[in-house]
Amino acid sequence: MRRLWLIFAQTVTVCLGILFIVSTLRPQWLGMGAAPPPGAAAPAVQSYAAAVERAAPAVVNIYTERHEDVPLIPLPGDPGLEQLLRQLPGFTQRQSSTSLGSGVIVRADGYILTNHHVIESADAIRVALHDGRQAPARLVGADPESDLAVLRVDLSDLPVIAFSPRREVRVGDVVLAIGNPFGVGQTTTMGIVSALGRNRLGINIYENFIQTDAAINPGNSGGALIDTRGELVGINTAIYSETGGSLGIGFAIPAAAAHDVLDQIIQHGSVQRGWLGLEPQDVTPDLARAFHLRKATGVIVARVLPRGPAAAAGIQVGDIVRTLDGEPVRDSVDLLNRLAPLARGTPVRLGLLRGGRDIEVEVRIGARPSAPRPPRR
User: Fold this and answer.
1) 147 has catalytic annotation
2) pTM of structure
3) Catalytic residue among 99, 221, 246, 332
């Protein structure tokens, strides 16, 4: 009998232990935590509101107006005859067109960064701030080759975006695009950095884009691409789209490049880039075989401009540029990007392949001539 009581007591003890363990672990088994005690704060939800609150006041809407003389009847294809007809009274009618974009206030004294294509050919530019103020803006300078422009407004107490031009951006970083898509008003979209160093897109002469899947649409151009701290990492510039809407492939000019253009335009009124005075052509696999090269790298000199730095150094058509100051040259984009930041008069050493023989020449960098602008009508 005593043994039965002992077995019964042990069984009860084991059951009570099991019940205690089950009551302790059951919330985890069910995939939910225990109910918070009364008055306790709810769990924090991930949000980028602080980053947007920090950056959004410095992102502006830009409205432009353009006046042009539009022919009342179709014009012939002859440019000379077209110019003559335009001078006849009553042949054209004055019309106005408007467009919109975005910009970023980068200095407290009124300087704004935007895209060149946002304000190109504009007769009037107006800026609307996040706080409701509006003001006319004047064009300080533009750089069509990078598609950047600098405006200035005469307003006080301006919000300025946090600017870390040398901050490293990585593929996979969360980014937010702020702008004025389709003119609906300031809008923020989210994505990640999809790729870095995108070029050969045919958008600009100098291309080194950040690619992102944050939704960018018409009207976003010139707006801010920020990180989760609210700091500027790029100027939204273009999208890849077959419909005109966002397909998740957008491009932004890196903050470092935009900062350099901003400084040069403020200091000099234009951007000065290093230049050799030659026309480079990429070495394709077929050309590499023709020239008996082991790798399809470097650039072939397709043309040498008279009185340019390359001509003065004795560089010839058909030379293959293989190194710049001892470092290999991958292709024409690599060569242009490495020459661009060099000041006029800077000596560089080019390693060339000429007639199957390696030679080295010293060239003094010249200033790249400004690209001619099409005439305004």
Assistant:
1) yes
2) 0.75
3) 221
